Structures are given as structure tokens and as C-alpha cells.
From TrEMBL, chain A:
Biological classification of the source: Bacteria, Bacillati, Actinomycetota, Actinomycetes, Pseudonocardiales
Pfam families given in the database record: CO_deh_flav_C, FAD_binding_5
Superkingdom in the source lineage: Bacteria
Stated name of the protein: Xanthine dehydrogenase YagS FAD-binding subunit
Domain FAD-binding PCMH-type: 1-221
Species assigned in the record: Pseudonocardia ammonioxydans
Keyword field: Oxidoreductase
Entry GO MF terms: FAD binding; oxidoreductase activity
UniProtKB/TrEMBL annotation, chain B:
Matching SMART domains: Ald_Xan_dh_C (SM01008)
Presence of keyword Oxidoreductase: yes
Domain of life: Bacteria
Protein name in the entry: Xanthine dehydrogenase YagR molybdenum-binding subunit
Keyword Cell wall biogenesis/degradation in record: no
Organism: Pseudonocardia ammonioxydans
From TrEMBL, chain C:
Domain of life: Bacteria
Residue spans crossing the bilayer: none
Molecular function in Gene Ontology: 2 iron, 2 sulfur cluster binding; metal ion binding; oxidoreductase activity, acting on the aldehyde or oxo group of donors
Keyword Iron among record annotations: yes
Record-annotated 2Fe-2S ferredoxin-type domain positions: 3-79
UniProt cross-references to Pfam families, sorted A to Z: Fer2, Fer2_2
Protein name per Swiss-Prot or TrEMBL: Xanthine dehydrogenase YagT iron-sulfur-binding subunit
SUPFAM superfamilies associated with the record: 2Fe-2S ferredoxin-like, CO dehydrogenase ISP C-domain like
A GO-annotated cellular component: periplasmic space
Pathway the protein acts in: Alkaloid degradation; nicotine degradation
Family annotation (CDD domains): fer2
Keywords: 2Fe-2S, Iron, Iron-sulfur, Metal-binding, Oxidoreductase
Length: 332, 704, 177
């Protein structure tokens, strides 16, 4: 770990200016991902700008939805009665991530920006286009059990590790960003990007841009929602696949659906095609499987020295079907 | 027959003597040993599986601030070159002696700096260049260069053969022939290997003295190894280790880290040096359980009596140093059959050096046969417990000796009762409720009971108390407490009159805490010392009276086959949608002789079973043959069981009296808990799903 | 450049100057000689370094010391029935010994701190992923304790004892409420 400077400015504007002024500067939030990466040598910033003391850390009602300060800890967000009642998918996603200690540290703004858990990305002795653009991808043909089946490229097959982000994707959240040129708001679905030929860029944020809040819209469909995370170990493990789903059923017909997948792509994967297949259909196992198949038609599994990840296609299909089946049975 | 101690303290449910310090965190481990102004040491590792070092440039590192020394390999470039070692006959310890790279992760340079941060940063700045050669790292049973070792780790022959297995298989009528695999596994004690080392050039009468506060299962083994490698008299090296943050075999044989720490300390005389391995580094420098491929064949008559047992094992070793896991042993001794065969073949690769991991040999070597027995039971249509009853040997099938005690059937019967096995529907894949598929499975377990040949203890009367000293180790096993119980009974006094001091080479030499021999050996030694003490000083000794004795040999070991046994019962639930596998119940019943301390014994057995649960479902060192290293080399991706993975997990034991094993009647309990567990779980997964998984770990994709 | 900061650790105030790279864990262990929190992985993957910072359980290895200027840190050594560092046992200390909730002891101080933080979270009605009804207060059953303590690995496998110890202290607390 090379030496770096440290600043803890008093306000967000100063912090943004400080990071924008130095190409090797980075924001430090809860630190659960960045400090790990400093120690691994995955990232080597020359300046850390601590934003933990200056980010808004309250949750407020916002036109029927919720406005969540970027500094709100994951544990606090998951415990909020409004989130538990109106957005259970988000509470469950948060609670299924990491551990109690890490959820106390990780923040609303930082969690969606956590970087891939690709074993090769984290190991600086192996080539990785995301960590070191142009060096190649050691993951392709390597241990690929946890890698992408959707939207990968020949340059990168990494997956996004966040559970929270999968729920936010399904919930049509908005992201408020402060940058050197002022504020902007973007749809959560636009925040992350597919790897293409520039896997070093996880998101569309520019250097110096800081997430200040995440806004959840009023979303009645979210009252019947859930998050299913599938993993080998019963706790404290990243998802092999995960499903965030919300379902609205009126007179035995699906009238609205929100679906997103985790563990299968470089981004939290919003399953628009599956949603489309569900809307207007009668809830049944056939419907649910058809929805999964619609979304996974383009899925491309990876071979690997560990047996690869073709299992993710049936696994995700069955996980989605099971999640929807359980939601359909819930009292609205 | 050994004269048995009258048990008073032995068997008492006493709390651990080191408990108060451990729950507060004031017990000092190796990296925390008191040291004046310690320097920090960091290892630089080779990022290739095979090649030659062409140059090492420490200049940038040396200039990076706070750097006290950079040790480089002896041939390329002279500056900072490491000392020449006196004995490099064991290649594992030939650190920085030449320019060859034998495996990825090998030590290629060592940095010592004022602070931890400076050492870590400087290590990144050491420039090493290589002439890389293609590494030969792909383990496979199909390789054409497999070879037979002269012996396996236990000292037993690699192969065995009796009768004609092939003819028996041909004759049948019932046959099971399958290939089973176990993966590379890492011990991963919670405390990564660590040493604090101090070289005092004026010590030991000017010859110099080296003190190592090391995390080890054997202070004396570390002392002997390091003094030999560095060319010092054993008296020049003191090793201290009151507490070990877990070992599970990985701290049994000294590894490169402690020798490196000694070399680093000698490079900065008078300065204590701390060398904690990172978690990642332990994956290549601290040993591992090698992967195995086991071809098991069973033949039986229609009544389920085995006519043949074979296990042909292929396993991995490193090219630089041989390690032949004794995987073949259980198939030689567990069940009666007139025709038996085992074989061991090794693939020597450019990989890190394998070593001991909890029940080396018995653990993987029991998985395959115990799953095969389950398959045979199904094939025959008999209950798996009944099948084992029908194949219970009268004498040890391998040696022909009678058993000192063999209560495996008692374990199976008692365990079955506690688990509720009776009335089990034998059909696989038939029970679904609550969205889960349910099944149960059983497996037996065995682990040999033995006593090490060398150990000594001294008992001294001090201030009206009895103080025993022996260089034993407590890895969480409870030695600090259990030896007090044994010494008290041997001296026929109350436990609160006795202190036992361990973990220091200043104490008399003790054997390693390994192979479930600790209590058997050290306890026998203390009993001998107590007898000597009483013989010389009677029941009213004076302060300062002191007696020593060595471990007595056990003549009975030549007349009896001695082992601990157990039976593991697992209930699994497999999620009907996702295939996620959970183990709501895991019960073990064991026959381990006399139990010295019930709470600590239970914890050992439960702990072994928990590690077996990890082996069954989670643990898998993902070795990438393209790079030559374990790519999931951390605790986020090498999945040891979490609290949530352990549901209703219980261990108990039958009341076993074995007069032949030793004066305490103990058999050793550190390993037996893990043996058989993975087979029981895998058998239960089959019962739940109908899918027979023969490759560990059993993961959800296999049962989707 | 080193930074000056003040930490209150187990009731005692310390001024120290740290390299920004120094973790809270290394500051405690190497600078202040408080070896109660342990280094099992140094990457937030084992929980052995768990301490309470301003009353909340966190991982000291992933916390840069420089970010915690002015904080109150409590380790397993400072945990007590009274104010931090006031001496005497915390009920968790006694329960861990009575239930034999450890072997090697290396993860233990982290387990104890984690349990203290977790029981506090529980008392505030916080849910976990195994809480059936997110709208209701959770019950302190075995599954809840297990899930909430899963960020603390124990390779010795003392999990049943840990669960029993935490349950005992949790029940005692509920009884006094």
C-alpha cells in the first residue's frame, strides 16, 4: 500500500472539488470496499477525501417516496420502518448482504459503487482489464463460478456484487449526484454500465462525482416484494444468483411486475423482458418460467477450470419462478 | 494391561484455565508477544509456478523509508543476500538459497522495516525479474508420470494387497465401482501463522541466541528445525508459545514462515521482528490437504458380506518436497473382507507443499469408502447400519491383531437411537415439505490411537504446590486444563494444588500436538513423572523436590490394534427450487476411551464435525492450473462454515473402558470428529434428492 | 504525512499520531498495545477484529484510524457491566466461559464485541434476513442469533457454545426489561 494523503472536508462541495482537482484522488465512505482494495493494491490513490462526516444521513419522506441520504448506513436503512413496510425487497436485500458489522459501516452511497468480487480483479498478480486496462482477462477460462452470464464482453466477465443495488434497480430509484459542474439526477438503471471494451468503468459517474442521495419513488407494487439470494454458505457470502421481485396481482392477473437479477452481470440486471412477459399474464409456474426464459434467451455461460457457470441459467430460472410463486401466494 | 489411574479429576467438567484471558483478549499470541520496539517483516512471493530468478533489485524498496533490511536470494546479485543456511536437506526450508522458483508463492525476498506499513509498501517495491518456464500444475489421475512413494506420511507402505480383488469383483454378485474426489483444502486457523523473532548476538555466552515466539503445535519441533537450518546449537534457540490461535495440523510441521522470521531477525541483530503471514500468504506457505482421486471398488455377496474392498488413490504432492497423504489407511482396517487392495500414486507438480490437515489420510480416505458403503447398502436393499454390522471384523483386517476396543457398532446403535434413525424410509428423493427435499445419511469413522515416542515432563514442589512442566501445546484443545486434571489424578491430589506449564522449549521436550496423540503422550508422560516423583519423595515432599520422566513405551501397541471410532448422522434439507443445501441436524456419537474433560471433549468433537460440514458442502481451494495458485485465497471466497451453517450439531460418546491404550484410558479426540462427516452429509444429500454426488464439495449445481 | 488524533479506548484517552494507512486495528494493536481485537484476515472477512466504535460493532481492520478522531472505542477487554474500562466482567465474558464458547480464543474477543453490539441492535428491534415478519419485532431465537453472529467466523467450531452464551445474556436482558 503506497502512502496517501488524507483530508476530511466539512462540506460536500469542498470534497468534490478536492477529488476533482487530483486524478489520483478518491472519496472514502464506509471504507468496507476501498480499504480492502488499498490493502490488496487493487487501487492506489494518492489522496483520500473522507466524506463520512459530511454526507446527509437522514431518511425523509419525499412525495410519497423516500429520500435516503448517501451517508445512511446500510443497517440503518434496513431497519427503517418505512423501508420495511413499503419496500421490503430493499430491506431484505440489505440484510442479506455481508455481515452485521459491515452493514453498520457501509453506506447508501457507497454500496452501489462496490466493485466486483472477481477473484482475478482482486489479485494484482494476474491480468485484469478492469484493474489494469489492456492487460487481459484472467477470469476467462479460469475459475468462473461467480461470473457473468449476461452482458459480458470479451474483455471482462465480472459480476456486480451488491445486493442492495439489485433491489434499487427493481425499484426504479433515482440517484442524486454532486459533481464539479453541479448537481444531476440519474435513473438508478443508468448508473452502472456493461463492460464492453472499457471494463475499468463500473458506472457512468465522472471522476469527482459524488452520490449524495438515493430517492425511492412511491411504488405500490413494492408492497408485495421480496429478495431471494442464493449462495452456497448460509450467510456471509456473495450471491451466486439473486432475484429482486415485486408483483401486483389484480383479479388473478399480473398487473405490474418489477424484476432484477444479481450475480449474473456487470450491472444489477433489470429484467425488463421478464417483466413484460409477466404483465397481463395469469400467475402460474408456466408463466414464471416463461418470464425467466424470455430474459435469459441471450444468456451465455462461461467455461472454467472450476466447471464454469452454466448452472446459473437453470438456477436463476428456478429462483425467479420460486420467488414469484411465493409472492403470488402472499396476501396483497 | 496398563495400570489405570483412578479417575477423580479426569472426567470432571472443569472450565478452561485460560478462559478469562481468552474472552477478554488479553491472552498473548505470537504476533502479540511483548517486544521492545519491534520491526516488521514482509515476505515477497514469486508470481509464477516455475522459473528462475534473473535479478532482484531492492534499491527502490530500500529507499522507500524505514527499511532496515531486504533479504534477497543468494545467487542473483550480492547485495542484501540472505545468509547461507547450514542444512537445506529439507527443501521446504531452503529459503533464498538459490535462484529457482519451485511454486507460485515461494519466498523470493524478505523486507524488514520500522513499521508495518513501511514493510508492506517496501515489499511491493522489491523488483524481481524471472525467466519463466511453463509450470506443470494440472493434477489428474490420468497423468502418465504418476509414481508410487516409498511410504505414506504415517510410515505405512503405500500399497497393500491380500487375496484377489479383481477375481472377487468379477464374481460379484453385487459390485460398486466408482471414482470419488476430494479437493485441495486449507486449514485456515483463525490466527494466521505468525512469529516474533529476536536474535541477540551476545546471548548464549556470546554465541548468540534466537528467541522465537511462534504460533506452533510443537515448540520443540520448531526449535529443532530452526536451529538445524540456521546451524545453531539447539540450546541457542528458545521457542515460546503459550497460545495458538488454531492450527488443525498447519502449525504441526514448521513451515517457511518461522525459518524466514529467524533469518530476518539475524539480519537486524538486537531488534525483535514480527512476521505475521497474511491470510493470502498462508494459502501457499503453510501447507494444505492435497486433492485426492479415489477409485473404490466393493464386492459383496447377496447377504451383504463384503468379498472385496479396494481403494486406489491418486493424490498430489509438490515437486520440491514429497508429501504422501495416508488416504489408503481406512480401507485397510475398517471392514472385514477376504480380498483387499489399496494403492497410492502421486503426481508431483509445481505447486505449494502439502502438509497436515486435521486427520490427514483418514479424513479423505474415509469419505470415499463410506459413500461407497452407502451405495452398496442401497444396491443390496439393506439398511446402511445393518450393512456395517454384517462386515464388522473380529480382528484388525490389516494387522491381524485383536482390537484393544472397537465400539463402532455401539456408536452406530447409540447414535441411531439419539438421531431417530429407526423406521427410516430408505427410498431416495421421496420427502418434500416446506419447499425443501429432506434426507438422512450415516457414516462411520475411525482414527488410530497412538502415543509418540519422545516426551518428557518434570514435576517440582513449589510453595506447597505441584508444578509440572512439559513443552506441550494448547491449540484450543484444552491442554492447559486437561493436563492439570491428569497430573492431579497421577499425583492423587486436588486440581487446585497443581499447575502445568506448557508451550516453551525451556520446559522438557514434548511431542507435537498432532495426530490426536497429545493427551495420550503428554498424559502418559505426566503419569510417569508423577510416579517417579512419588517414588522418590513420597506423599510429603519438600519444596524444591523435583523429578523427571520420559514417556513410557506402550507394549500393548504391539499386541492390539487401537483406534477411536464414531458414527455420524446427518439430516439435510435441499431447497426444492434452488438446490441450496443445509444441514438442520448433524449428530456424532463416538468411542474415544475415557474423556478427560467433557466440555472440552464435546467442543473438540463438535469442532471436528463442523470442519467436516465445511468439507462436505463449502470448502474448496480453487486451484487455477494456468497460474498455479489458489485463486480464492481468502476467507470471503474460501468458505469455512459460518454460525448460520451450524444448526443442531451435537456430539456425545459412549462410556468406553480401554485398559490397553494408556494409564488414563484416553484415545485422542482431535481428529475423529471430522472423519466420516462429509460422507454422512453426502449420503443424506443422496437420500434427499436421489442424486449421488461423489465429488466434494457437494454444491447446489450438482442437485439442481 | 502523519495525522494527530484522539481515541478513547476502553475508557482511557490516547493522543497519537498515525500514518493515514494505519488501520484502527493496527493502531490499537501495534501503537496502543491493545491486542484484544485480533487480525484474522485484515480484509473484513472474518470478524476477529470486531470492536464497538461509539457503541456500534464495526470491523477495525477496514476502518482507517485517521477517520475515527474523537471516537470512543471499546474492545472485549474494556467491555464491562459498567462504563467501558471500569473493570469487572461483562455478562458475556462469564457466559462465554460457562458455555465453553471458544477453543483457541483467537476469534473470541471479536465474538464477544460482536455479541454485545448485536444484542443492542436486537434490543432496538432491528430485523435480520431471517426475521419472518419485517413489520414486527424479531424474537431472539437460535436462527436469529446464528444469522446475526455469522460475521464472526470460528474455525474451531465453537458455534453452539457461542449461541448458547449469547442466548443466555440476551434472555437475561429481556428478563430485566
Amino acid at each position: 500500500m503506497r502512502p496517501f494523503d488524507y483530508q476530511a472536508p466539512a462540506d460536500a462541495g469542498t470534497a468534490v472539488a478536492a477529488v476533482a482537482a487530483r486524478p489520483d484522488a478518491a472519496f472514502l465512505g464506509g471504507g468496507t470496499n476501498l480499504v480492502d482494495h488499498l490493502r490488496l493494491g487493487v487501487t492506489e490513490p494518492g489522496l483520500l477525501v473522507d466524506v463520512t462526516g459530511l454526507l446527509p444521513n437522514g431518511i425523509s419522506d419525499d412525495g410519497g417516496g423516500l429520500r435516503i441520504g448517501a451517508g445512511v448506513a446500510n443497517a440503518d436503512l434496513a431497519a427503517d420502518p418505512r423501508v420495511r413496510r413499503h419496500y421490503p425487497v430493499l430491506a431484505r436485500a440489505l440484510l442479506s448482504g455481508a455481515s452485521g458489522q459491515l452493514r453498520n459501516m457501509a453506506t447508501t452511497g457507497g454500496n452501489p459503487l462496490q466493485r466486483t468480487r472477481c477473484l482475478y480483479f482482486q489479485d494484482v498478480t494476474t491480468p485484469c482489464n478492469k484493474r489494469s486496462p489492456g492487460s487481459g482477462c484472467a477470469a476467462i477460462g479460469g475459475a468462473t463460478r461467480q461470473h457473468a452470464i449476461l452482458g459480458a464482453s470479451e474483455h471482462c466477465i465480472a459480476t456486480h456484487p451488491s445486493d442492495m443495488a439489485v433491489a434499487l434497480s427493481a425499484l426504479d430509484a433515482q440517484v442524486e449526484v454532486l459533481g464539479p459542474d453541479g448537481e444531476r439526477t440519474l435513473a438508478f438503471g443508468e448508473l452502472h454500465r456493461l463492460p464492453g471494451d472499457a471494463p475499468e468503468r463500473d458506472t457512468v459517474l465522472e471522476h469527482g462525482e459524488l452520490i449524495t442521495a438515493i430517492v425511492l419513488p412511491p411504488l405500490p407494487v413494492a408492497a408485495r416484494s421480496d429478495y431471494r439470494k442464493v449462495r452456497d454458505r448460509a450467510s456471509y457470502a456473495f450471491a451466486l444468483v439473486s432475484v429482486a421481485a415485486a408483483l401486483e396481482i389484480t383479479d388473478a392477473t399480473i398487473t405490474d411486475a418489477r424484476i432484477a437479477f444479481g450475480g449474473v452481470a456487470h450491472t444489477p440486471w433489470r429484467a425488463h423482458r421478464a417483466e413484460q412477459a409477466l404483465r397481463g399474464a395469469t400467475p402460474s409456474d408456466e408463466t414464471f418460467h416463461a418470464a425467466a426464459q424470455a430474459e435469459l434467451a441471450d444468456a451465455r455461460p462461461q467455461d472454467g477450470v472450476d466447471g464454469g457457470n452454466a448452472f446459473k441459467i437453470p438456477l436463476l430460472t428456478r429462483t425467479l419462478a420460486g420467488t414469484l410463486r411465493d409472492l403470488a401466494r402472499q396476501e396483497a | 494391561m496398563t495400570e489405570m489411574l483412578e479417575h477423580r479429576a479426569i472426567g470432571a467438567d472443569l472450565p478452561r484455565r485460560d478462559g478469562a484471558e481468552k474472552v477478554r483478549g488479553t491472552a498473548r499470541y505470537a504476533d502479540e508477544s511483548p517486544a521492545e520496539r519491534p520491526a516488521y517483516c514482509r515476505i515477497v512471493q514469486a508470481p509464477l509456478a516455475r522459473g528462475r530468478i534473473t535479478g532482484v533489485d531492492p534499491a527502490v524498496a530500500e529507499a522507500s523509508g524505514g527499511v532496515l533490511a531486504v533479504l534477497t536470494p543468494r545467487s542473483p546479485g550480492g547485495r542484501g543476500a540472505a545468509e547461507q543456511l547450514a542444512d537445506t536437506s529439507d527443501a521446504e526450508y531452503a529459503i533464498l538459497q538459490d535462484d529457482e522458483v519451485h511454486f507460485r508463492g515461494q519466498v523470493v525476498a524478505v523486507v524488514v522495516a520500522e513499521t508495518f506499513e513501511q514493510a508492506r509498501h517496501a515489499a511491493d517495491l522489491v523488483e524481481v525479474t524471472y525467466d519463466e518456464q511453463p509450470g506443470d500444475t494440472l493434477f489428474s489421475a490420468e497423468r502418465n508420470d504418476l509414481y508410487r512413494p516409498e511410504q505414506v506420511e504415517s510410515g505405512d507402505p503405500p500399497d497393500s494387497s491380500e487375496g484377489d480383488v479383481d477375481a472377487a469383483l468379477e464374481a460379484g454378485p453385487v459390485r460398486i465401482r466408482h471414482t470419488y474426489t476430494t479437493p485441495m483444502l486449507h486449514n485456515n486457523p483463525m490466527e494466521p501463522h505468525a512469529t516474533t523473532a529476536l536474535w541477540e548476538p551476545d546471548g548464549h555466552g556470546g554465541a548468540g541466541s534466537l528467541t522465537l515466539w511462534d504460533s506452533t503445535q510443537s515448540v520443540h519441533a520448531v526449535g529443532t528445525t530452526v536451529s538445524g537450518v540456521l546451524g545453531l546449537d539447539p540450546e541457542q534457540v528458545r521457542v515460546v508459545c503459550p497460545y495458538v490461535g488454531g492450527g488443525f495440523g498447519s502449525k504441526g510441521i514448521p513451515h517457511q514462515n518461522v525459518v524466514t522470521a529467524g533469518m530476518a531477525a539475524r539480519a537486524v541483530p538486537g531488534r525483535p521482528v514480527r512476521l505475521p503471514l497474511t491470510r493470502q500468504q498462508t494459502f501457499s506457505l503453510a501447507g494444505y490437504r492435497p486433492p485426492t482421486v479415489q477409485r473404490v471398488a466393493l464386492a459383496a455377496d447377496a447377504d451383504g458380506r463384503l468379498t472385496a474392498i479396494a481403494n486406489d488413490v491418486v493424490e498430489q504432492t509438490s515437486r520440491v518436497k514429497e508429501f504422501a497423504e495416508q488416504t489408503v489407511l481406512p480401507a485397510r482396517t475398517m471392514y472385514a473382507a477376504p480380498n483387499r487392495r489399496t494403492s497410492t500414486r502421486l503426481a508431483a507438480l509445481d505447486v505449494p507443499i502439502p502438509s497436515w490437515m486435521r486427520a490427514p489420510g483418514e479424513c479423505p480416505g474415509m469419505f470415499a469408502p463410506e459413500v461407497a458403503m452407502d451405495e452398496l447398502a442401497h444396491e443390496l436393499g439393506v439398511d446402511p447400519i445393518v450393512l456395517r454390522e454384517r462386515n464388522e471384523p473380529e480382528t484388525d483386517p490389516d494387522s491381524g491383531l485383536p482390537f484393544s476396543s472397537r465400539n463402532v457398532l455401539a456408536c452406530l446403535h447409540r447414535g441411531a437411537e439419539r438421531f431417530g434413525w429407526a423406521g427410516r424410509d430408505p427410498r431416495p428423493g421421496e420427502r418434500v415439505h416446506g419447499g425443501w427435499r429432506w434426507g438422512t445419511g450415516v457414516a462411520a469413522s475411525v482414527y488410530p490411537t497412538s502415543r509418540m515416542p519422545v516426551s518428557e515432563a518434570e514435576i517440582t514442589r513449589v510453595d506447597g504446590r505441584y508444578v509440572a512442566r512439559i513443552g506441550a501445546a494448547d491449540l484450543g484443545t484444552g491442554t492447559w486444563t486437561a493436563l492439570v486434571q491428569i497430573a492431579a489424578d497421577a499425583l492423587e491430589v486436588a486440581v487446585d494444588e497443581v499447575d502445568v506449564l506448557i508451550g516453551d522449549t525451556d520446559h522438557p521436550e514434548a511431542s507435537v500436538a498432532g495426530g490426536s496423540t497429545g493427551i495420550n503422550t503428554w498424559g502418559s508422560t505426566l503419569v510417569a513423572a508423577a510416579q517417579e516423583f512419588r517414588k522418590r519423595f513420597g506423599d510429603t515432599p519438600a519444596d524444591g523436590d523435583s523429578a523427571r520422566a520420559g514417556v513410557p513405551p506402550n507394549d500393548a501397541a504391539e499386541r492390539y490394534a487401537m483406534s477411536a471410532y464414531g458414527a455420524q448422522f446427518a439430516e439435510v434439507a435441499v431447497h426444492a427450487d434452488t438446490g441450496e443445501i443445509r444441514v438442520p441436524r448433524l449428530y456424532g456419537t463416538f468411542a474415544v476411551g475415557r474423556v478427560v474433560n467433557p466440555r472440552m471433549a464435546r467442543s473438540q468433537l463438535v469442532g471436528g464435525m463442523t470442519m467436516g460440514l465445511g468439507m462436505a458442502l463449502h470448502e474448496n481451494s480453487l486451484f487455477d492450473p494456468r497460474t498455479g495458485h489458489v485463486v480464492n485465497h481468502d476467507l470471503a471466497e474460501y468458505h469455512v462454515p459460518t454460525q448460520a451453517d451450524v444448526a443442531d450439531l451435537r456430539a456425545d460418546w459412549i462410556d468406553e473402558h480401554d485398559p490397553h491404550v494408556n494409564a488414563m484410558g484416553t484415545k485422542g479426540i482431535g481428529e475423529i470428529g471430522i472423519v466420516g462427516t462429509a460422507a454422512a452429509v453426502a449420503n443424506a444429500v443422496w437420500h434427499a434428492t436421489g442424486t449421488r454426488v461423489r465429488d466434494l464439495p457437494v454444491t447446489l449445481d450438482a442437485v439442481l | 504525512m502523519d495525522h494527530e488524533l484522539t481515541l478513547r479506548v476502553d475508557g482511557a484517552e490516547h493522543r497519537l499520531s498515525v500514518d493515514p494507512r494505519t488501520s484502527l486495528l493496527d493502531a490499537l494493536r501495534q501503537r496502543l498495545g491493545n491486542t484484544s481485537p485480533k487480525k484474522g484476515c485484515d480484509h473484513g472477512q472474518c470478524g476477529s477484529c470486531t470492536v464497538l466504535v461509539d457503541g456500534v460493532r464495526v470491523l477495525a481492520c477496514l476502518t482507517l484510524a485517521v477517520t475515527r478522531d474523537g471516537s470512543e472505542v471499546v474492545t472485549a477487554d474494556g467491555l464491562s457491566a459498567g462504563p467501558p474500562g471500569s473493570g469487572g466482567d461483562h455478562p458475556l465474558h462469564r457466559a462465554f466461559i460457562d458455555e465453553d464458547a471458544f477453543q483457541c480464543g483467537y476469534c473470541t474477543p471479536g465474538q464477544v464485541c460482536s455479541a454485545a453490539g448485536m444484542l443492542d441492535e436486537f434490543a432496538r428491534g432491528r430485523p435480520s434476513v431471517v426475521t419472518g415478519d419485517l413489520g414486527a419485532d424479531p424474537e431472539l431465537d437460535d436462527a436469529e442469533i446464528a444469522e446475526r453472529m455469522s460475521g464472526n467466523l470460528c474455525r474451531c467450531g465453537a458455534y453452539p457454545g457461542i449461541r448458547a452464551a449469547v442466548a443466555r445474556v440476551g434472555r437475561e436482558r429481556e428478563g430485566t426489561r
